[in-house]
Design goal:
Length: 95
C-alpha cells in the first residue's frame, strides 16, 4: 500500500519535471552589470556559504560541551556512590 503511494508520487514528480520549462540562465547573471549588484551577489554568496558552516560548528561545540558536562556529572555520581558505599561498609557507628 505504501509502496504504491510512493510509486504514484514519484510518477507524478517525473511527469511534472517533463512538463516544466527549462531555465537556461539565472536572472542575476544578466543584471550583474553594476558594482552594487555584483557586491550584493558576492555578499549573499558568502552569507549562504558560511551560515550553514557556522551552524554546524555551533552544534558540534555545543555537543562537545554537553558531553564534557555529562562526563563530569558521571564522575561526581561515581564519587558520591563510592563515598556512600564506604560509609555503609563501616557501619552505622562510624560517625
Amino acid at each position: 500500500m505504501i509502496a504504491r503511494r510512493w510509486a504514484s508520487l514519484l510518477g507524478a514528480a517525473f511527469v511534472l519535471t517533463l512538463w516544466a520549462e527549462p531555465i537556461w540562465a539565472c536572472s542575476v547573471c544578466i543584471g550583474a552589470q553594476t558594482p552594487d549588484t555584483r557586491n550584493a551577489w558576492i555578499a549573499m554568496t558568502a552569507f549562504m556559504t558560511f551560515t550553514p558552516l557556522a551552524i554546524v560548528l555551533g552544534v558540534i561545540l555545543w555537543l562537545r560541551q554537553r558531553f564534557r558536562a555529562l562526563e563530569v556529572s558521571e564522575h561526581e555520581t561515581e564519587r558520591i556512590g563510592r563515598r556512600a558505599s564506604d560509609q555503609s561498609a563501616m557501619g552505622p557507628l562510624s560517625s
